[in-house]
């Protein structure tokens, strides 16, 4: 159990708390500043985090008026971050709903080349009619269709990443032969959603392919994760639920023929840090006072796919539809429903509970308290590591790196330096085999055929 | 005429000569090295170039075996270059054939934010069945359809870039109001190829939108350029042809209601430099000796859309089809046809003429000779500047910056330092007006409506 914990820094504007930009500890100009994000990654790298992570969406926020609007696109921003860091992994979100596998495969291969093997792809399926309407559709595809499309998308992308064997480039100056075309393969994919000939126009990258990350926790989401994901982000409110989720996912991976250790399960944690418990409580209260209720209701409505606008704030939630009828994020819907029921929360109280972390676990306290929480969940088999979501940035990440990370190291839970150079190295994963690598001459159609 | 010349550095692997990677002055490892490209951009920035430019395609090369295979994807690579430079413009190619306007608009807006206003988009329509087959099609769309799609694509993208007025972010910490939603606009585009609701999920970028660049010289290509392009790359073999092209394009721009100065016409030039004429000739001969004829024939076939493989090298070209029947790059086809006929070239001789520059003007000689050529074309009204395509990289770019640029400066043709910070500043263009900027309250559908 020593040194095995994994930490990802989820970078989000000037902080994960929805009112972070209103808090005096943040600098509004940071929201649109690439230097800010480069600095955050450097702080996380100083803390030997496995990776940084950028979320993404393809539409404006539900409540435009109260949402900090600056937004970089993940692949471009991560490429700029790559240039300012050397070891830390770089995980970016791209939806399988609204892009082409060939374009996505190229951009992630490129990021993996640029960063020397540090790329990861957070695979999302994107609920939301408003997103669909930016891409020629009337509304979002059905939940099951989205996951079927995601599965095929990943199949195509991984085939493209394999389409060049490592030995394909021969680079023989004397003869002018750069490539052994026998080792470059068409993929000839013809499926329900995509038809792609291949090969990719990029040699195989340092990691073979980016680390595949996933963050959907519905039934379909878990099945997808068990089959494809190498790291899983998840929002969990209680240790019991987290442990159940963890066991379930590992069992599914085993059923899919994979080793349990081949998936890192990383629940989110929002660490609200103070030198004393009182100081941390004060910060938490300051932040929650800055929440704009209308905005929080809009965000919650969007997150769970149920319109709660206009509902009385000081009453319990209205009766909610059954999860089968939700075409949004099913797992987040269930989490919110269960949290409200378990703690008998009014809408206003629920918003307070969610404002800091959008459903992720908020832990308020001293560095020791946060380290205790991390150790407890880790030791209990509820997590392989954590997706760290500081409420304020950069201050919350700095506080974590300067105070919580040393404590985790002292306890022998976390690395003191990087052992390798790629994100796969940090996560303890081998470079994936190439499906074409042991093909005999003439097997599988190569570009020379 | 002082200081008005524009120079773009077209970055291509270890050089534009097709056999560059075989030449001892290049380093094969540079092909896959982001540091190499960052260094090239820094050299060009030292030479106060307006911009660097990356070409792109969405398929493997026609002759995989003899093509240097390393390839970065432009938007990711330019983002990494942005982090290593501060002034130089960053122009990347993305096809309108195989991506979605919403995704493209976001990535270029992001690059423009990341670079502080240095982004440019080279708009290409992508001929080639092999590309189409990576995106679910049986073969390339017809030439005219490609340009109709490009036109609609650019309309959608520019509307998305306008969808946030500059004043939309109000960032009022006290009230929690970040955005004035009256200044954020849906675009509600519903056309032949695309249906896009908008708005973009990005505030307006430093330049308003990236500089729009174009490089198709067919009739449809010129019509498109006259309507939309702010810079045009073109391959021209003779001063006469270049002047005709220049005049034609400026006249078309005027007919479209634009000022002639609103389009910069930049013919390609491949400067093969030597301290003496003899040294330059020697380098040119060395390079041409390294051409692999089969590869050159494959590239030429692909470029003009006519299969010339298996044709005798020492005979004239076979009769070529009429340009109407070409579904590839029509203008490049005409250039090659006319060059072969004018100089009565055999196929082998033609390959020699094209190997250095794929149809662009190759000028072999001393820095003075290159500067003379540039000055002559510029003064004759054949060019607003040049797309500089060094045969070897980095050495050819270094030689140009160290020897030709000072000569151009001495002659008062080229800037000695950057006057502004954005690519638009370098090109002398104003920031575009936002179509929504002067809408009265309630006019145009805003997200708050
Ligand atoms: C930490 C975390 C980050 C996420 N990031 C994104 C994101 O960037 N974009 C997105 O569309 N969804 C994101 N999601 C949502 C999930 O990927 C998933 O789409 C959602 O939970 C719906 O899937 P489900 O119905 O399987 O739960 C994230 C979820 C978690 C837990
Ligand atoms: C300098 C230059 C660079 C070009 N770069 C690209 C490129 O990166 N990708 C591409 O598909 N076409 C590229 N082209 C080709 C043109 O954009 C255009 O697609 C082609 O000439 C066909 O258009 P046409 O039929 O109008 O001539 C380039 C052309 C020139 C002159």
Automatic annotation (TrEMBL), chains A, B:
SUPFAM superfamilies: Bacterial luciferase-like. Gene3D superfamilies: Luciferase-like domain. Keywords: Flavoprotein, FMN, Monooxygenase, Oxidoreductase. Residues 1-116 form the TROVE domain. This is LLM class flavin-dependent oxidoreductase. InterPro entries: Diverse_substr_monoxygenases (IPR051260), Luciferase-like_dom (IPR011251), Luciferase-like_sf (IPR036661), NTA_MOA (IPR016215), TROVE_dom (IPR008858). It comes from the Bacteria.
């Amino acid at each position: 159990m020593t040194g095995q914990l994994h930490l990802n820094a989820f970078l989000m504007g000037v902080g994960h708390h929805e009112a972070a930009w209103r808090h005096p500890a943040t600098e509004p100009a940071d929201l649109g500043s690439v230097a800010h994000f480069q600095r955050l990654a450097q702080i996380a790298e100083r803390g030997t985090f496995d990776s940084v992570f950028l979320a993404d969406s393809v539409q404006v926020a539900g409540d435009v008026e109260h949402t900090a609007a600056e937004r970089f696109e993940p692949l471009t921003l991560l490429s700029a971050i790559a240039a300012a860091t050397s070891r830390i992994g770089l995980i970016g979100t791209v939806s399988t709903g609204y892009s082409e596998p060939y374009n996505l495969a190229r951009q992630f291969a490129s990021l993996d080349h640029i960063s020397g093997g540090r790329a990861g792809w957070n695979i999302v399926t994107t609920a939301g009619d408003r997103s669909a309407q930016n891409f020629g559709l009337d509304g979002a595809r059905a939940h099951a269709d989205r996951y079927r499309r995601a599965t095929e998308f990943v199949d195509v992308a991984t085939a493209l990443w394999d389409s060049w064997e490592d030995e394909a480039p021969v680079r023989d100056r004397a003869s002018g032969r750069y490539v052994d075309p026998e080792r470059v393969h068409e993929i000839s994919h013809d499926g329900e959603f995509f038809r792609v000939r291949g090969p990719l126009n990029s040699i195989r990258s340092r990691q073979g392919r980016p680390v595949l990350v996933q963050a959907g926790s519905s039934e379909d989401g878990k099945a997808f994760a068990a089959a494809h994901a190498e790291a899983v982000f998840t929002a969990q409110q209680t240790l019991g639920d987290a442990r159940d989720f963890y066991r379930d996912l590992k069992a599914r991976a085993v059923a899919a023929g994979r080793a349990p250790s081949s998936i890192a399960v990383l629940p989110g944690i929002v660490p609200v840090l103070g030198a004393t418990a009182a100081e941390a409580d004060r910060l938490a209260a300051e932040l929650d006072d800055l929440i704009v209720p209308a905005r929080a209701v809009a965000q919650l409505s969007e997150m769970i796919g149920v319109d709660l606008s206009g509902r009385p704030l000081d009453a319990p939630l209205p009766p909610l539809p059954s999860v089968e009828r939700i075409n949004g994020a099913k797992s987040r819907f269930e989490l919110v429903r269960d949290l409200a029921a378990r703690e008998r929360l009014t809408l206003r109280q629920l918003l307070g509970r969610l404002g800091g972390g959008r459903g992720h676990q908020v832990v308020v306290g001293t560095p020791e308290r946060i380290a205790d929480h991390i150790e407890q969940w880790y030791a209990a088999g509820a997590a392989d590591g954590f997706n760290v979501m500081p409420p304020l940035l950069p201050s919350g990440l700095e506080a974590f790196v300067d105070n919580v990370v040393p404590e985790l190291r002292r306890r022998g839970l976390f690395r003191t330096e990087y052992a390798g150079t790629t994100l796969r190295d940090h996560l303890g994963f081998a470079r994936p085999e190439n499906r074409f690598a042991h093909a005999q001459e003439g097997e599988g159609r190569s570009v020379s055929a």
